[in-house]
Structure formats: C-alpha cells, structure tokens
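Worked Example 4.2. Consider the chain below.
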Amino acid sequence: MRPADQRTWVAQALIGSICVMLVGLIGWLVRIHAVQRPRLLAWSYRRQANTLPLRGRRGAVLDRRHRVLAGSQDLPTIYADPRAIEDHGEAARRLARALALPAGAIKQALDYPSSRGYVVIQRGAGPSEVEGVKLLKIRGIGVHSEPSRMYPMGSLAAHVVGFVGSEGKGLEGIELAFETYLGARPGRRVVFRDFRRRAMFQEKDSYVPPRDGLHVVLTLDAVIQEVVEREVRKQVEHFGAQSGLGILMNPKTGEVLAMTSYPTFDPSRARSVPADVRRNRVLTDPVEPGSIFKPYIMAAALAAGLARPEETIFCHNGLYVTGKRFLHDHHAYGNLTVAEVLAKSSNVGMAILGQRLGNTRMYTSLKAFGFGEAAGIDLPGEGNGLLMPLAKWNSYSTTSVPMGQELAVTPIQIATAFSSLVNGGRLLRPRVVRAVIDKYGGVVEDHRAVIGRGEALAPATAATMSELLVKVVNEGTGRKCNLDKWQVMGKTGTAQVPRRGRRGYEPDAYLASFIAAAPASDPSVVVLVMVRKPNRRIGYYGSVVALPAVRAILEEVLPYLGIPPDKPVDGSTRLVWDSRNN
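Applying the procedure from the previous section yields the following structure tokens:
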C-alpha cells in the first residue's frame, strides 16, 4: 500500500473511531438524561438540600386583664446537620464540653438516623453556650432562633396554666386542655448548600410560613391569684401543714378568679418536681368535708319543710345515742334553734335533721347540689368525688352524712354548691376560660356565657340559708371573719382525715376549712380555703387555721374589685336580698 493510501486509511479509521465514540457518548448521555436523571437528581438533592423546620409561636395564656401568664420568646437553638460532620464522636465530645451535656446523648442524636439533615442539640441556649459553640467552628453545627415557652410570673397559677413538654406540646392545665388553639402549625424552608455546607440559596417555592397559635384569655385575675396564693402559703407554713388549697369564684357567673394548690411549682421546670406537687388538688382530690358540708343538709331540711330557723331542737347536752351509735358535740348544748345548730355547728342537731329527712330525700338533695358528679370545669383531671349509691346507705349514713362523713367531695364541688346557696339557688358550671382570641385581639370563641346546671333549691330557701350563714359569722364559729365594712356569710369545718385504704381515721390528722361569701346583700365572691394536716399542737380547727386566710383575702379582694360596703356606718347588720339573683 502506497504511503498516501496508508495515511488516508489511518485518517478514516481515526475519524470512524471518533464518530463511534461520539455516538456512544451521546447514547450514554441520553441514557443518563432519560433513565438515570431522576435517581441522580434525588441523590444530589439529598446531599445539597437542607430542610429547616420553622416553629410557629405558641399562643399566650392571659389573665382576664390580658396580663401574660404564659408566652413565647425567641431563644437560640443549637442544631446539627449530621451529614456534614466528619467525625460524630469528636464533634459530640467538643459540644459536650461547651454545653455541659452528655457526650453520649449528643452522639446518639447525630448517629440516628444518619440521613437526617436537621437535629436539635439544645433549645433555649444561653449567650455563653452560643458563643462557645461558635468558637468551636464545627462544620455542620449551626445556631438559629426559635420560639420558646416562658412563664413571666413564675409559679403564679401554675396548676391552672399547666406546662409544655420538650416538643412544645401542652401536658397539663390550660396548656393541655386548649392545645388545639394554643399550638402553632410549623412551617419550613429548603436551602441548598455547597460542599462546605454553607447556605447558597433557597429552593424556589419551598417556603411554608408557620402559623402562630391563638391566645387563651382566662377568668383568673393575676392580682387576686397572688393574694390567694400568698394567704394559703402563709397558713400552710405557719401551721406546719402538709398542703393547702384555695379558690375564689363569682357565684353569679361561675367564673373562677383564683385557684391554687400549695406546694406549687415553676412551670418552666415542671419536670423537676414530683407529679404529686403538680396535681391540681382543687379538682382531683376528694375529701371528707366535715362540718363545712352541713349547710347543704340544712338547706334540704328547710326546703322539705322539716325545719324552721326559729324552731328549737334539743341537742341532748352534747351526747346523742341513736341505736348503737354515740354522737358527740364539742360543747354540751341543750336547746338550740335550727339557726343556732348551724351557727354553732352542732353534730347532734344535724343528725336529728338527717333523721327527719331520711336517706332518700337527703340523697336527692345532694345530687341536686351536684355532688357525686364532675362540676364540668374547663380543665383536665377533674374528679367526680364519691357519693355512694342510695342502695348502699344505711342508718349510720342517716346521721353521718349530715356531719360531712361517709362521702368525699372535691373542693370545686364544695365551692360551686355553696355558690348556689348564695346566688338564689342556681347551680352553675364553673369555668376558667373567658375567650379565645387571635393576635389582633379579635374574639375567635366567646366563653363568657353563664352555663346553668339546674336549680339546687328554691330562691326563698336560698334567701333563708343566706340569713343563717350570716348568723354563723356574726354569732357562731365564724365570728373571726366579721369585717367592718362588708357583711360576710360562711361556714367553718374541721374534719378528720380518713385512713387510706382502711377504715377509721388517721390519728391527729385534720382538714381545716372555711368557706365564705361577701357581701351578704349581693354576693360577689365565694372563697374557700382548705389546709390539710396542720400541726395539731399549733392549731387545727377551721376557725383557727383556714378562716384567717379567707378574712385576709376578702379584706384585699373586695376593695380591689370595687365592691361597695353593705354595712351601715353604725356597724349594724343589713341583709338585703337582691331579687336579680332569683
């Protein structure tokens, strides 16, 4: 072959080879584009795109004057992208030193699952912690701001407000009951990062804004709440008691203006205290009420026409034998009027009224007052108390129940039933929420409507009971609650504490109680204070332990609410029943 021809053949072969290679390359590119493109794009997206969750701001819990009891503020959150961290173990050790957290827990969060692009290391980090993390300059570790729950008034109304968990969800109280309204809907945005995990740009149309939660306005008043908490705490500490509780409500509407249990807790550190401390005893703990229960039996006897206030009852000089039972009074009372039986809290006199009523009428009346069923308050955890079925009542029940024994009632039941005694006989549903509002103050749900649960007793009987309860304060066991400007009506109670799971009572263990309403001419507030297991050597009667707290509360709250005095200047008693309450 001639050299020229040989060169031509080589050139043609080379060109042919190049064409074949180009065709193959084009085919390979077509295959990549048509077949492998979705898989490769997904592979690239997983490594370059980073989805950042955007937490919305949880709604606030406000008192009736819009003071913030629970709110949210932006705090630094330290997060990690595990895919960008070369050595999880080393990063965990360095972060642990800067944040004072267990290195093992941090490494576990980084390792599982390894494909996650966003892992929270610490929420609510302090300035020194944020600065320490930034100085580490660990690739894949970042800081951004997120809303964090805060309770600016500390432990105030903790048992009503409740608290949230680590994920920002309500766990108790209003935080739990109104989670649907308070909870925010999270948003997100997707950013693309370079090989150093630096954010380069945001994916188009990837931004989904978070939706903030709605605000819940309570019936509570922070000032009144503080007064009630202070006075309950003072009595518990002074008398060395196990615990105490208090509730103040409007008997005309069922609105609760204050509710407390002591000991209490800080909602921001709720997990650091025992569950027993977090329990709202006003709703959950049924108690054998003792003498504070006597007004309801008295009302039943008056309503049935089986007693008159001026009627005289012989109280057997403090010892009443009925069948095999011996009933005692603290004093050897002889003849007492029905009004004096209540004023002096005579067990014998009440037992006699119970016998007149009989079990059936007594049981029916107590059911009308709402005992034996939940009061229906808009908080979680409320109990039903314990009112035995009528079939289980016996002759002992006939004389025990009028003294507040053989049954268990919750404090909220006691307060709502007492409200019916002083508001004209209406049994109302108690409530702690006034409204749900949006961020502009617009009302989303209005909860201010008064919800009736029936008539506990006739208005005329309620008016008579108000007069008898005034007599308790003016002449009976509640004399120390006689105020200068306002006429108070109420009832004391000193009950033994039953043994748990056994018959009988704990030795030297008492429940001291006092419930009151004021002013008598037009009751605007009902206050209940109970102190459990005060030191017997210091004092244990309701008139000694609980009554001073109620008096102090009324002396501050009545002027604060602008309630006009109902006592004339000369100090005489004036009881005028307001027909609007009928």
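Residues 113 and 385 are 48 Å apart (CA to CA). The longest strand covers residues 505-518. Compare this with Example 4.1 before moving on.
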